[in-house]
Amino acid sequence: MTPPSCPDDSRSDPIAVSLGDPAGIGAEVTLKALALLGDRQRDVVLVGCRRWLEHTHRRLRPLSAVPLADPCNLEILDLPLEAAPETGQGSAASGAASFAWLTAATELVITGRCRALTTAPIAKHAWHAAGHAYPGQTERLAELAGGKEASMLFTARSPLAAWRLNTLLATTHIPLAAVPGCLDGALVERKLDTLLTFCQRFKPHPRLSVAGLNPHAGEAGQLGSEEIEWLEPALDRWRQRHPGVELVGPVPPDTCWLDAAAAWRGEGPGSDGYLALYHDQGLIPVKLLAFDAAVNVSLGLPFLRTSPDHGTAFDIAGRGVARADSMVAALNAAWELG
């Protein structure tokens, strides 16, 4: 792979953008987001197939109610597709392409040619069909970064208040039945360290909340023993190491994000960060409150990675109706935090 030439002084430190599964909406939301961002589209390097991107632009332009950036005006690291993908149908070919594009985009960041990485959505089943057995992009990024322990954090700024929702996941893309066996006190303490470091970007002494694993946070062992056996002792140890931080928890999962909902509406204070113990525990409140505004941020890597908080949306691919709000937020977060 030959990376693009170094940017000129007027557009230093661009963002690398991998275009995701070519059968999905990655190209559409990226071109819409760059059109909305105006001159900032000069501050990105797209990684994908130029001919396919130009074809996508021509096909969607008459269907879309909002403008799309013209690929002719964008810097593209061209990694051509061997064959045109079938829109809306993830396959081994589309999975191989999105995997190669992510790898190349990551190389641009690791080598210092770009300041941060933004990734359009991929389809895990397409990756698996192509022979890449990763749970998701985060795990591939951790491998490319030399085996770092990466964490998934979802962040969104409220449009109604000067407050940011930050939710970190202790575990990510694993079956629900595997969650208890993957959790322990040491992991929770490490994830709290990661969450604290991120939240201190905005506030020196943040308030953090930790959700329990079981209903009612175990209800004193009546509904599960994990809280008593290892979660509460881990939180006590972490409090002793961070006396200046208010740590709340374990909080019953069904009420942990109630103050976040109020803060999102501008009706009261919320915690500065929330730790969810498994994927849907954290993503349900995030998507309920901030589906179009939330951004997935990978932490623990030697570079910043952001992505929109949605998938490939194969069911609407090629129709020109995909919303670009979350991709706009992902690009803005890469510029702001990178």
What does the model show?
There is one protein chain. The chain is α/β, with parallel strands linked by helices and 338 residues long. It has two domains: 1-150 and 300-338, Isopropylmalate Dehydrogenase (3-Layer(aba) Sandwich), CATH 3.40.718.10; 151-298, Isopropylmalate Dehydrogenase (3-Layer(aba) Sandwich). Helix content is 36%, strand content 16%. The protein contains eleven helices and eleven strands. The chain has helices at 26-37, 50-60, 92-110, 124-129, 137-144, 179-182, 185-199, 226-241, 258-264, 279-290, 325-337, and strands at residues 15-18, 44-48, 75-78, 116-119, 151-157, 164-169, 207-211, 246-251, 273-276, 295-299, 304-308. Strands 3-2-1-4-11-10-5-6-9-7-8 form an eleven-stranded mixed sheet, with helices on both faces. Strand 10 (295-299) and strand 11 (304-308) form a beta hairpin. Helix 1 (26-37) packs across helix 11, helix 3 (92-110) crosses helix 5 (137-144) and helix 7 (185-199) packs across helix 8. The two termini are 24 Å apart. Mean pLDDT is 93; it is low at 1-11.
Brief sketch in words of this structure:
The protein is α/β, with parallel strands linked by helices. It contains 11 helices and 11 strands. 36% of the residues lie in helices and 16% in strands.
**Unreliable residue stretches:** 1-11
Report, as a whole number of angstroms, the end-to-end distance: 24 Å
What is the name of the CATH superfamily of the largest domain? Isopropylmalate Dehydrogenase
**How many β strands by DSSP?**
11
Can you name the CATH architecture of the largest domain? 3-Layer(aba) Sandwich
Query: Helix count, per DSSP?
Result: 11
Name the average pLDDT. 93
Sheet with the most strands: spatial strand order: 3-2-1-4-11-10-5-6-9-7-8
Q: Major sheet: size, sense and barrel closure?
A: 11 strands, mixed
Q: Which shape, going by the Cα principal axes?
A: globular
Going by helix content, strand content and strand pairing, the class is alpha/beta
Q: For the record, what CATH class of the largest domain applies? A: Alpha Beta
Q: C-alpha Rg, in Å? A: 20 Å
What number of domains? 2
Query: Could you give the order of the helices and strands?
Result: EHEHEHEHHEEHHEHEHEHEEH
Strand content: 15-25%
